[in-house]
Amino acid sequence: MARWDEVEAEAPELAALARRFLDAHVHKTIATLRKDGSPRISGIECTFAEGDLWIGSMPRAVKALDLRRDGRYALHSGSDDPPGWEGDAKVAGVAEEVHDERRRLVLGDGPTHADAHAFRLDVRELVVVRLNDARDALVIESWHEGRGVERLERK
Asked: Which of 34, 41, 61, 126 gets the most CB atoms within 10 Å of its CB?
């Protein structure tokens, strides 16, 4: 699994575009897996720090418990409504809960965060969906671990 900075090194233009879409909205959506394997969608915020993508969670939130049990996730940037829509980004991979001093990167240093969860997100897939310059076709650009960057244009 790749760290965010490894994705940036392998696919710098795609990673920059994805980060622009991820940074465009404070709130994102994350999908996790429930005990029975069905999906759960939750609101989340993320941050980029020290070459990684991070999320935090309130103590014992169901999304955090999901990730502790099965770290697989899918994160969506959120998107604007048409006609202003420029695109959106999706990241998928495996979350790793962090218990050391790196927790401060996403949780801060305050005592209220003592029981909160901090997860570093490894990346297996990065996808950006947007319109082409003529705005008459979808452009789907993706990076997959071990495969590199692919581009598809659909009318």
From this structure: 126
pLDDT per residue of the chain (155 residues) written in tens, 0 to 9: 799 999 999 999 999 999 999 999 999 999 999 999 999 999 999 999 999 999 999 999 999 999 999 999 999 998 998 888 999 999 999 999 998 888 887 887 766 677 889 999 999 999 999 999 998 999 999 999 999 999 999 98
Rounded to whole angstroms, the Cα distance separating 34 from 14 reads 31
Alpha helices in 74-123 (DSSP H): 104-107
Cα separation, 146 vs 96, in Å, equals 20
Which three-class secondary structure state does DSSP give residue 13?
helix
Cβ neighbours for 1, distance < 8 A, ≥ 6 positions apart: 93, 94, 122, 123, 124, 145
E-assigned strands of the chain? Answer: 28-33, 39-44, 46-49, 52-57, 72-76, 87-97, 117-131, 138-144, 148-154
